[in-house]
Specification:
heterotetramer; A: 378 residues; alpha+beta; Butyryl-Coa Dehydrogenase, subunit A, domain 1; Butyryl-CoA Dehydrogenase, subunit A, domain 2; Butyryl-CoA Dehydrogenase, subunit A, domain 3; four-stranded antiparallel sheet; 51% helix; globular; C: 393 residues; four-stranded mixed sheet; 44% helix
Amino acid sequence: MAMILNDEQNLLQQSAQDFSEKVATIENFRKLRDAKERYHDQALWKQVAELGWTGIIVPEGWGGSEFGYLGLGLVLQQLGRHLTPSPLFSTGFLAAEILMQAGSDAQKDQYLPKIVDGSSLFAFAHEEQIRHSIHQVTCRGEKVAAGYRLSGEKVFVVDGELADYFIISARTSGANGAEAGISLFVVDASQAGISKVQLTTVDSRNVANVTLDNVEVSSDCLLAEVDHAFPILQNVFDKAAILMAAEMLGAAEDVFERTIDYLKEREQFGVTIGSFQALKHRAADMFVELDIAKSVVREALSALDEGSDEVPQLASLAKTRLNDCLTLITNEGVQMHGGMGMTDEFDIGLYMKRSRVANQLFGDSNYHRDRFASLGGY
Amino acid sequence: MAMILNDEQNLLQQSAQDFSEKVATIENFRKLRDAKERYHDQALWKQVAELGWTGIIVPEGWGGSEFGYLGLGLVLQQLGRHLTPSPLFSTGFLAAEILMQAGSDAQKDQYLPKIVDGSSLFAFAHEEQIRHSIHQVTCRGEKVAAGYRLSGEKVFVVDGELADYFIISARTSGANGAEAGISLFVVDASQAGISKVQLTTVDSRNVANVTLDNVEVSSDCLLAEVDHAFPILQNVFDKAAILMAAEMLGAAEDVFERTIDYLKEREQFGVTIGSFQALKHRAADMFVELDIAKSVVREALSALDEGSDEVPQLASLAKTRLNDCLTLITNEGVQMHGGMGMTDEFDIGLYMKRSRVANQLFGDSNYHRDRFASLGGY
Amino acid sequence: MDELAEFKAEVREWLEVNCPPSMRTPMPEAEACWGGRNAKYKKPDSKLWMDRMASRGWTTPTWPKEYGGGGLTKKQNKILQRELGRINARPALQSFGIWMLGPALLQYGNETQKQQHLPKIVRGEIRWCQGYSEPGAGSDLAGLQTKATLTGDHYLVNGSKIWTSYANYADWIFCLVRTDPEASKHDGISFLLIDMDDPGVSTKPIQLISGVSPFCETFLEDVSVPKENLVGGLNKGWTVAKTLLQHERDMIGGIGGQGIKRKVEDYAKDYLGEVVGKLADPVLRDKLAQYNMDARAFKSQGSRFQAELKTGSAPGAISSAFKYYGSELNKRKYEILLECMGSQALGWEGEGFSNRELSTTREWLRSKANSIEGGTSEVQLNIIAKRILGLPD
Amino acid sequence: MDELAEFKAEVREWLEVNCPPSMRTPMPEAEACWGGRNAKYKKPDSKLWMDRMASRGWTTPTWPKEYGGGGLTKKQNKILQRELGRINARPALQSFGIWMLGPALLQYGNETQKQQHLPKIVRGEIRWCQGYSEPGAGSDLAGLQTKATLTGDHYLVNGSKIWTSYANYADWIFCLVRTDPEASKHDGISFLLIDMDDPGVSTKPIQLISGVSPFCETFLEDVSVPKENLVGGLNKGWTVAKTLLQHERDMIGGIGGQGIKRKVEDYAKDYLGEVVGKLADPVLRDKLAQYNMDARAFKSQGSRFQAELKTGSAPGAISSAFKYYGSELNKRKYEILLECMGSQALGWEGEGFSNRELSTTREWLRSKANSIEGGTSEVQLNIIAKRILGLPD
């Protein structure tokens, strides 16, 4: 278990930190937010690709660095610190991961280089309900002569309004809820029959609801074996939960540090409020929660790199932990900032907003506690 | 709603307080505990009867004072303060209540005066599982020529080893779990076929497991209409939950006051520990919980006297509230007493032990939250 | 009793004639009538309705008639309110003048002050705002730094106030100012009334995380205020303030019952679904039951408090307990709602979310202020520990 | 590697010959071997096993050979422990001398002291207890009042100690005593070794709420102690104590993994039943999953800490975080167990409850001490706030 970073990982972390402090700043995010357009910074994205982060998990054969999940997690953690919106998660992780697991050689050759060089953006259109579910796929994928005809509704598709390509899960057989019968397709976003509604979300990121109205795709678009995408989805969502936890860890660290700084600086009743024991104990409690969260994320990322059997448990553990930890720390952070924490001028409210979106992505705590118990056989 | 006591109620409360401080002291309880016999003080019981508390809810026609449930609650609250073990709950409330609701005139004439003068003790043998349930009755009541033949096991029967009479629920028809088919019987404890195992419980009260092995009882022993005891049980258990909450309120008040006193008196690091803000905030939080608990118990007791429609909701509310409040206050109380709180010499551990038994009686918080939701139609 | 019955009949008749039908519909927040010199009325009926009610003094039903109030007894007022409720009448006038300044003036103001200000509050002619908090003094209210120095007949006021609700729409502000910098913290404060048209007063709205701007910063630069505008005596402002704060605390403490009127379980049913009459998610159902039980218990505590108020047996500081529990409860309600709503709770505006969903999300963010405004939860716990439990400093 | 393989073979062979079969069975608490002058051995094999292990120095495998220890390297010790585990060997000797005093003497003792005390600890000849806390000083350990006054060659010691584990069975006690009443709190304390056979030493067991008496009060009245028994220098006792406390904290922090070895869900299944492979009560199932996740996460934190220890990047005060979280976790475990067990959790002794049930109830009560002993949770939070977060006093 790699609980300590090696030199290369330290370097990567450092460069992500520099980038996040100098380029991907929260001021940058505020500008995107206030512009109210697509919440996407093309220049920043170009830099992300140039830094090689789009290819961190991609094998060298397709231009990637094959640096591993811990590496990607370190980058996401740093971007999480400044709430940086970027398609890295959707393109550099979700799409790359699915293609690596489910793509044919031809598909890999076609798409992976575009991911690595940042020239194409991807979005993963899977969820159909207000809550994460792997099984619930009602979007139909009907076999037709030339390939498949896709119809259905996908909701809360992250980067859905940006994407050049969608990866879409659809039911090619079986009843809704069944594990068998789910297939994956990679589809050009400009394909006839695809329509999108961009959402304006509380965290000001690019999200869309996507409608598929008899979208005809060729058989070349099918990823993996027809009807057998479920195990791939399961694994991808485990990884996604862990990497989202890494992003959330960055946010939690940042809010925690801001709050501790504020406690040391803000004066009331003639003393700094950090000298009040009740606040001290709550701060110490947050520290413990955060320290544990760090350990869990680190262990879970290592487990991905090592291909550990415990990945499913660690995924549910990491996501639940970070959901709850980030909720705690943003709530406590706002409260400890007092009235100032309620103002838009202070950044802390932005983290609170992001925290609740991140909570929902890839499963909230109720979902993962239930799953953890099931994995434990009780 | 009688949120304020009237003069008569104040007088009753005062006399209960005097009795509990002078006679039913915690030293008295310790003696019973250490004697390890039946955990019953006959002299004290005689005084309880003389004070008229055995007849508080009994109509005047049978020698009672018909003073009402709020009155009984006030007495139980005071006895709860000093952990006084007494058969008042089983005899003066449970048996009296059931007989009043389910007894024929002849049965009332036979038993109620004995309850009021304290000459007979009763125990209500209903539960059959480790958790409270109204529906789960497997104990059989078979119709035979002369009456009924009872067989089965009853567990955790409070005052079961003391009782001169048992009130027993048995299934006279229907499947286990059904509402219809449950009947009630009042049975002489010396009846052939009844055997008891006295339990030594963590709170040192009189409790027994009771086995009924073909106990033949005459038809005179049947209470209420055969097969139709369920609504009576429901109502009795609602009242029991509220009165148990009243007893627990007394215990919670006492532990809270002890703890606040200790905070004011114990010195560490050169100051009284009550000056530490973290402890202050936790103490204030307990105060709020306790103040709300008081209100709930008072309102629920009044609702009983007024025959309010909201009794079921208030019963579940009061029991849950006091379960959780007493657990909180005993846990915090022990922690704030530090090492001394762990010693048998300090009383606080005795309250912690009693709290967990009281938690289980007539439904724990999980039971009542589930019920409260069901009553609310969700 | 006949008199009350007569009163009731009279009220009912008067309302029937005088309350415009358009004022008997649910009121969107934006149509609330706050009065003031520069008031804009989205609907002309709002002005009409306010004026008619004011003409009877019923915008302030229990204030003395001599100051324009209704002069009603408590029982009469109860009847009036019930009749207003019966026809779903909109509030004729909302005002910090009515809620806060008026009661303070009635208790601490001199005759001239009452004559000057109360009638204008009753008639909605002057809109007031409150100037207590300062950027440097949040929970430590008494640490305020805004200075008022007596020079001749006037106080020269310098400083700034924060969290002044709707100051950008207000005509006058009632302020706490420091009049004796030498005295101990609580003893050098006075309560001053300031016309915001005076030179040197300016305001700047504060945008909140919930996207709205109900509060301002208010700057006071060399504002000259006649010394007659001092209420309650020089350096006696803290006494006036305490009365008002207690009042504010009671208002916010009741917040658990405010906001969303729809039952939380009805929302939950929409988003979680039901199985045999129970919410489909047993864990969220349990959480929700706990919330509902706590809210019901809080209501019970309120009833007991009301009863004890009558007998005088309620401890004064108990309002801190209400403020604390009520605001924590309300925050919890919104957290549960968010959990129930899943990704439908994540909208800010526009397509893809219902109006109700969007406003629930905004209210969730708004609720975070409950445990800060009107004295933080931490301050309430301090008060309970000190004044009720007697724990040492 | 060959050397280690050889060592392993040798150990295995030696154990095969020397570990009595009766010492390869699970050990009831009552048969634990603590050594000491007046030790009573329920089984003669216990004594035999201890003596044989001591003869190799394996009761203290990594202590230097010159003091009777095994002189093993870490790797060798790992092999030894694994081999002992393989045959389920009972601990040959339990002792506060081994766990606490020994390491302190090795670090701070002079040569004479090491020679005098360490071999007897290794051989289980002397049973030690710890005298830190005092009735008046709980969390405020440094506030201790037991006085040691130098008169000639001896210290005259007066005072009393509390929470001295098994003092009623111990031969010697290592004590913190105040040697300079004028110095600031931490600077006037010394670390003193006292023979409990000396006149003036007496003990009194304390009964706990869990019904057992593992602790005593220990009274010191005019006890005369040779000045050679001072460890670590005059008024330098706090340094020695801190090392030992950190050690104790680490031990108790690991407590989440202690006690019940059976999985909590297996208990829960017994008492709640299952429906389609899930615990029948979904709310308790959720609570239990949360507990298991927290325990797993705590384990993860432990692994990270172990790794960081090696690189020296772990903050020293982090053991306070372990102590805090570990003990709160353990308390929660028992509260959940109680909820699962219903009325079967309410027994104290005798019929109607299984032995496992009775001991779970006792362990529940015992667990309440976790957040008190070895520094309360409150003290740990203070340490974190100060030493890790740097929050001001």
